[in-house]
Amino acid sequence: MAGDQKAKGKTEQAKGKAKEVVGRAVGNESMEAEGRAEQAKGDARQAKEKTKDVFKH
Question: Could you report the per-residue pLDDT of 12-24, keeping only the tens digit for each?
């Protein structure tokens, strides 16, 4: 389960980065902001899973 959540976090980060870059390229501030938010969500998920790992061991 934890590995699944980590993968989901990485996916969110990658999708967010892509959306941010595309938004910046076409001048769409809304898409750029969505991308940053998605990256932050992925970062938070990754941090949560890393914290769980620390307390597991």
Answer: 999 999 999 999 9
